[in-house]
Structure formats: C-alpha cells, structure tokens
Amino acid sequence: MNPRLDAPAVFLVGLAVRLVFIHLHPIIFGGDTVLRLANKDHVLLAYQLPVLQAAIWTVSRFTDELLAIRYLMALSGAAAGAGFYLLSRHFLDRRGALSATLLLATNPFLIQLSIVPYQEIPMLAALLFAAHFYLRARHAAAGVALGVACLTRYEAWIACPVMAVAWLRERGWSTRRIAQALVLFGWAPLAWMLVHGGFSAGGTFVIEWPASPERVVRWAYLGWIVVKNTPPPVLLLAALGTWCVWRDGLWRDRRLQALAGFLALLLISILFSAHGVSPDPERFVASREATLPIAAAVLLAGVAARLRFGVVLVVAGALWGLLDTQRFIVRDTSEPHVRLSYELARYLDGAVGAGQKVVVLARPAPPELVQSYLDKVRARGGDAGVEQARAHMASMDISPPDYQRTLIHSRLGRARLLPSPEAGADWIAAWSDYEPEQAGDAPVKVLKAGSLSVSLYRRR
User: Fold this and answer.
1) Which of 453, 417, 435, 425 is CA-nearest to residue 363?
2) What is the pTM of this model?
3) CA distance 421 to 273
4) Comparing C-alpha atoms, which of 369, 238, 421, 376 is closest to residue 313?
C-alpha cells in the first residue's frame, strides 16, 4: 500500500471499529454523557469547556437522532487514530507506527470514550495533530489545533507552555518572541480566562490546593486504570519499548523529552484538580484522566513492535482489546438504571399515543452531593458565588438521572416526557427506588432489571 494512504486507512479502520460497537450497543452509558445530551440545547455548561457541547448543539440543530452525535464521536476517535499515526511517524518506522496505531484503535478504554460524548477523545485528537503540525514546523496549524484541544479539556492547557518553550528555544527569548509564543500557543486559554475572569465562570471551580498528602494516591489510581484497561500483550510491549528507549539512547531526543515533560506536568496537575470523585475525592479522580497516559503507553509499545516477536504481541493485543471492549461495554450498559432507562424509553415510544404525556417519577440526585458542591463554591466565592452556582443550575436540566437517560433515548421529547407530576399527564412511570404518589389502579406494565423495576400506569 502507498505510504501516503496510511493515515486515511488508519482513519477508516478506526471509524469502522467504532461504528460496529455503536450499532451493537445502542444504550448510552456514563453520567457526564447523559448530562450533555439532556442539555444539547446549551453550549456552555457550568465550568465545562465548550468545543464538544458546541458540536452537540450544532448537530442537534439538524437532527434529533442520537446516532448522529455518536457518529460524530466515532469520527473524533478515528481522527485521533490518524493523528496518532502521523505523530508516531516522527519517532518510529512505518511498521512501528502502524503497529502502535492498531493498538490505539483497538484499546478498549479509548473505544468506550469515543462512542459516547466524552470530551477526552476530541481533546486527544486535537493534541495529536497539534504535536504533529509543530514537528512539521507548521506552527500556525499547531496553534489552531492546540487551541481546539484547550477549549475541549483543561488538561490540554499544559501543552501550551511546553510548545511555547520549545518554540522559544529555537528562536530566542526576546520580549517580542515571548509575546508571539503566548499568542500563537496560548490564545485559547487566554481568551477563555479573559471572558470569564479566571479559569472558569463565576460560581464554578476547576483547581484547588491539595487538602492533604493523600492526593498522591491519585497517581497510583491512574496507574491502576492504565494497567486494567490496557491488554497485557500491549503492557508487555510498552515495558519492552521503555527498555529500548533507554538502551538505544532515544531518551536524548528533545522531542521525546518534550512529550515526557508534558506527561510529567499532567501528573502534577492531577494533584490540583478540584473535581475528585467518590468514594474519596481526595484520592480519586475520573478514570478518564488516564486517556493520555494510555496513549503514551501505546506509543512505547510501537517502539518494541520491531522486535522479533513484536508482531505476535501486536496481533494478540489488538484482538484482546476488541474482546475487552465488548466485555466492558456490556458491563456498563447492563447496569440496572442504565438498561431500564433504555427499555422504558423504547416501551413508551411504542405505547404512548399521539399527544399523550408521561410523568417519570425517578429518584433525584442526592441532595448532599449538591450541597457539597455549593459548600465548595461558598468557600471560594462566598454568597455571591453560591448565587452564581444556583443560576447555572437553574439554566440547565439537572432533573433526575434516570429521567434524563429515558429522555435522550425516547422520541417523545421534553414536551411530552415530564420529570415531575402534572395533572394533565396520561401516563405515570414510577421507579421502584422512588416513592410515587398513589396511582390507584394496578400497573399496565412492569419493566425489570435486576432488583430494580419501573411500574407504568394509565390515567383515566
């Protein structure tokens, strides 16, 4: 095959893999993904950066089909594969780059993140193209791609000083050059902070000083996520690749040093993230923070692909990754709340008559979770910050998660599918973990998933 066709071929293979899993698994999983889809008429969501939500908003202007947004995500995943191949070719021969890209395209963790609307994969794609353009001395294109990444996830901001310093080392550290570097590589964060007067809108927060030394546990947690979500043959290749980098003196390459510096700064920044997760926000962050370390491990695996048995491990790693992808998605879509919301939406679409309305009685988000967030806002911005936070909440759909999941899968729409009791509703869908009003008659249908159920009533 013509080497010039490698990147398009990689893109098409990555797209095909994702489309297969999208059609095998029509259920949307993930909490943030549901919130974004339930608020697809918004571009700005609290502290979230706007690129992905703006793309969702744009697609929803033309169609309400959920598949359209999932196809958009599949395209971003395929683009990440193409960008990864192009970047890999700066360090690896063709065989190594193709091997590494195959392992990236079949990584179960990255596939999962690229078939529902998570921000990490669009950010990864933009960062990879930014690095590739920079190494090709196409600095304006690199600045544009980096800006897109920076307006997708805050982690990408770390690449701005790395790229700016590399550029200044080539051209000198004059005041004019520093200003040029700031504009060229930092325009997006600077514009965002200028508009919001800080890292995020008033009433929200993204960074904080560590409350205890326990935050270093976040590194161990992310290391575990990388190990758990990378097939063992790929981990072996990555370990061998690390040894090859040291043995062959590749670590002296300033380009690789810049990538390593970026990852080091990323790990340091994890300690200052204000958005830890349950059960212990001090010690745990979202597992999706492992996206970039996993991509780095796959690049190292490509270094070892040239070894005698490398091709065997690459094929084994790719097949293992596809099998794990199927297993992980089945696990995530089988969770009772997730599956039952989808089944409820499908039933309502078939049973509810034209013009009829449905009330979904579902358990709201835990009030202590909301209060904990408001307490953090008050500690940073006082009562004014709390008022701004409440205004953000009032502008968004923060209805019960099970209602939101049902809403995004149903064709009834927000006007006919309601999150709270209404006198004119024709149907009631009462979740078993919610205390509904007395419906009177026996349910016309009961849907079950594990120990959870939804009872459907018809009002006369």
Assistant:
1) 435
2) 0.92
3) 38
4) 238
CA 408 to CA 224: how far, in whole Å?
A: 33
For residues 145 and 133, the answer to whether their CB atoms sit within 8 Å is yes
Mind listing the pLDDT tens digit for each residue in 250-266?
A: 899 999 999 999 999 99
pLDDT at position 440 is 58
Regions of the chain short of the pLDDT cut 50: 438
How far apart (Å, rounded) are the C-alpha atoms in residues 65 and 80? 24
Q: Which helix (H) or strand (E) holds 64?
A: none
Q: Could you tell me which of 86, 64, 125 has the C-alpha nearest to residue 410? A: 64
Distance, C-alpha 281 to centroid of its chain = 19
At residue 231, φ and ψ (nearest 5 deg) are -55, 140
Q: Which of 157, 421, 417, 187 is nearest to 292 (CA)?
A: 157
pLDDT for 72: 97
Cα 448 to Cα 454: distance, rounded to the nearest angstrom: 7
Four-point Cα dihedral 263, 123, 329, 445, nearest 10: 140
Q: Is 410 left (phi over 0), alpha (psi -120 to 50) or beta?
A: beta
DSSP string of 72-91, one letter each residue: HHHHHHHHHHHHHHHHHTTT
**Residues with Cβ within 8 Å of residue 321, at least 6 apart in sequence:** 103, 106, 107, 108, 111, 231, 234
Instruction: Give the pLDDT confidence score for residue 1 in this predicted structure.
Output: 63
Q: Are strands 427-431 and 445-449 parallel, antiparallel or unpaired?
A: unpaired
Compute the residue count for the chain: 460
CB 360 within 8 A of CB 406: yes
CB 243 within 8 A of CB 305: no
Amino acid (1-letter code) at residue 309: F
Q: d(Cα 265, Cα 299) in Å, to the nearest integer?
A: 18
- Strands 427-431, 452-458: parallel, antiparallel or unpaired by DSSP? antiparallel
Two tokens, residue 280: 């212990």
Which whole-number Å values give the CA distances from 253 to 87, 247, 364, 440, in the listed order? 14, 13, 53, 74
Per-residue model confidence as pLDDT tens digits over 22-48: 999 999 999 899 999 999 988 887 778
Q: Do residues 344 and 356 lie in contact, with contact meaning Cβ atoms separated by under 8 Å?
A: no
Indicate the DSSP class of residue 287.
G
